[in-house]
Specification:
Elements: E1 2-6, H1 11-16, H2 18-27, E2 32-37, H3 42-45, E3 51-56, H4 66-75, E4 82-85, H5 94-99, E5 103-107, E6 118-120, H6 130-135, H7 158-167, E7 176-180, H8 193-205, E8 209-212, H9 219-227, E9 237-239, H10 246-253, E10 258-262, H11 265-272, E11 277-280, E12 296-299, H12 319-322, H13 326-336
Parallel strand pairs: 1-2, 1-4, 2-3, 4-5, 5-6, 7-8, 7-10, 8-9, 10-11, 11-12
Helix pairs in contact: 7-10, 8-9, 8-13
Length: 344
């Protein structure tokens, strides 16, 4: 049985999609799973043992280009028994339709009748978590999902990790605190730089080193955090944001003795690497997309105005994050890591 997955467009969602792949393998141990997704997701998918191959999807988020979708679909004709769509858009249903895949499964959305022939009606109360909405597509409609739920788990190759350490001149002579201060979704998910800097200062004084991760857009935030450290401590913080590829970031995050992160894609990567993780929430909620790992502490204020799920604060004050001081994050770190954690 060959299954084509139409993958999501965000890093965190792609990590969480592994729960669907795990469920499919549990139900159909001999099935082959291919994922059609943007090229950026390849390093994630290559670290999932359930996935046979990542297929490149060249179109950006929200782009229609009907002729290109038809061409891709025709190139996949006759290769798959089922397609499962994780996005709810009409556009995402076109390639499986053009490929003539016999069974095309997905949640009802954007008038996809005809494009899908296994249309599911989402009960949000029954499936409040994103992973539940992904996993349910592996089963027949209406059944109770088997528990315990699987957790994402990314596979790391030692040679690849060592190559990344060498490339950036990094050493594991001291425990590593990884900070992920970015959030592509918007400012309302960013814990302030001064708070991150305080956490970094205390851990450096305790004998740790600090690595900062993120995209090119997050590099200035990383520099701001470093600038807030006094000379002598600043040298123990390395800003890798925008310097690494996603593959390198994943491999280097696997070296972390602990991670502090906003609600972001890298938060889900850290959880899938089973790193001790403190997740800082502001405008969003762990009730929908929590980090899925054993060693997790979630820190949030839970103000009356949150979660609002907005990219920017409608009131302009960002109190849900600004008023969340470093102390509860540091205390959460101490509960997770009383002693340096050995790198797996």
């Amino acid at each position: 049985m060959n299954i084509l997955i139409i993958g999501p467009s965000w890093v965190g969602d792609m990590v969480m999609a592994q729960t669907l792949f795990q469920c499919l393998k549990q139900r159909h141990p001999d099935c082959e799973i291919d994922v059609l997704a943007p090229d950026w997701s390849r390093p994630i998918l290559e670290r999932m043992p359930e996935v046979r191959q990542a297929l490149s999807f060249p179109l950006g988020h929200g782009v229609l280009q009907l002729a290109t979708r038809r061409k891709i679909g025709k190139s996949l004709a006759g290769q798959y028994d089922q397609a499962i769509l994780l996005p709810n858009s009409l556009k995402s249903a076109l390639v499986p339709f053009f490929a003539g895949i016999p069974k095309r499964t997905g949640w009802k959305g954007e008038m996809r009748y005809g494009l899908l022939n296994d249309v599911r009606i989402l009960d949000k109360d029954r499936y409040p978590l994103m992973i539940e909405r992904f996993m349910a597509l592996a089963f027949e409609p209406g059944i109770d999902l088997p528990k315990p739920y699987p957790r994402p788990s990314l596979r790391i190759e030692e040679a690849s990790r060592d190559a990344a350490l060498t490339k950036f001149g990094l050493s594991l002579d001291r425990p590593v605190l990884a900070l992920c201060p970015g959030a592509e979704f918007g400012e309302a998910k960013r814990w302030p730089s001064e708070h991150y800097a305080k956490v970094a200062e205390l851990k450096v004084r305790a004998g740790w080193q600090v690595w900062l991760f993120g995209s090119k857009n997050d590099h200035p935030v990383g520099e701001d955090i470093r600038a807030r450290l006094i000379p002598g401590l600043r040298e123990e913080a390395v800003n890798l944001a925008g310097e690494t590829s996603l593959a390198e970031a994943i491999d280097l995050l696997s070296c972390a003795g602990a991670v502090v992160s906003n609600d972001s894609g890298l938060m889900h990567v850290a959880a899938a690497l089973n790193r001790p993780l403190v997740a800082v929430y502001g405008s969003t909620s762990p009730g929908f997309t929590p980090p899925l790992a054993e060693q997790v502490e979630i820190v949030r204020l839970g103000l009356e105005c949150s979660p609002c799920f907005e990219r920017t604060c409608r009131f302009g004050h960002y109190n849900c994050l600004g008023q969340l001081k470093p102390r509860p994050v540091i205390e959460a770190l101490d509960r997770l890591v009383s002693d340096p954690v050995e790198v797996e």
